């Protein structure tokens, strides 16, 4: 590292160069780094810290390097510590000594904080678009299957009939919370740290607000010590990503379950399933399983960075360099998961016959029978107990509630009349006509709202 010769008599050991370099992964921030440097150079010129001519040379040089990197013509030197050094060293090669002026009033500590914030802002926007695509797939499937009834479950036991669309929209809601959670995280990411220097600020008359405007930041950081050592925004990103992966993982679990021979509620498209290398009959939900599994990986990134940050003194410490692999890996994992699940969701085939067959099992209308008695003025607890005994009886004689005669019913309560035979899964669903409930008209309203939200 000859550029810092002066204090040092020896180059770093080879293993140390490898150990300390972030270049193998932080090259991904080259766009942000160059954009930040251009804004910085322009600000230095505006403040008469460098000349306009010098700024123009720097800016043109930086733009040319961006092209080089884009076109894969950039020779990444592994001995350089990070993308910031790599770009500056290339700039020295292309524009000469004036390149040395770019780093005036700047430290890599505020530079890397800036780049990471810009990268995280972009990452959040990418994730939000991907969330919208998955939400769209769910809404489209809900619209397509708007009349399909299925058993709703609690404790994995058939509980009450629900609309399939209602079930799909439950995932829409989770994703909507993710979307807005990322939006909240964006606000705290969107704060511009450049001008904080190494830790104490800068001994130049900088216009930090100008840089913020150039880079479309809403505001600037207010404490330089905090600004160079803060990675809360990365942790927030990772928290939001973890929650979103948790939702994907829950959806994945249902896809695995529903595609089993026992359920057969869905058929996963061939292009989103995998064969077995030994069992010819198999069509495995590996894609869903990987989505379920990758949640663990993203949680790991969150835990990893939280642990790295714990106990760090102010201000910059090299430990902070550990933030980037966590951020990049979690981002790639979440983005790919959202993309793949959107594709898988939109190509799912729902098997309404299996769903209606399942509806006929498990005494799913028992609550409706109890509600029937409540409407005849019986206290709910009593109605619950009577219906329980009735179900017990039906089970013992191997019949469903629908197969019982009126006489069977009346053995348990004389409040039962002919109209008890009117209970049905359809009526059960349409009776849940409260906001958020499963009745077709409520679900239609939920669908309309969802349709509006995904347009935003
Ligand atoms: N590669 C470093 C990082 O990612 C950049 C800042 C280096 N600063 C320093 N003082 N060595 O955190």
What would you say this structure looks like, in words?
- The protein is built from 18 helices and eight strands.
- It is elongated and about 100 Å long.
- A hairpin with a 7-residue loop joins strand 6 and strand 7.
- With 456 residues, the protein is mainly α.
- Strands 1-2 form a two-stranded antiparallel sheet.
- It binds arginine.
- Arginine (ARG) binds next to helix 6.
- Arginine binds next to helix 6.
Topology, pairings included?
Blueprint: H1 14-20, H2 23-26, H3 30-46, H4 52-70, H5 83-95, H6 108-144, E1 149-154, E2 157-163, H7 164-189, E3 191-192, H8 208-214, E4 219-220, H9 224-229, H10 232-258, E5 266-267, E6 274-275, E7 283-284, H11 286-309, H12 323-346, E8 349-350, H13 352-359, H14 366-375, H15 380-396, H16 406-410, H17 425-430, H18 440-453
Parallel strand pairs: 3-4
Antiparallel strand pairs: 1-2, 5-8, 6-7
The structure holds arginine (ARG).
Arginine binds next to α6.
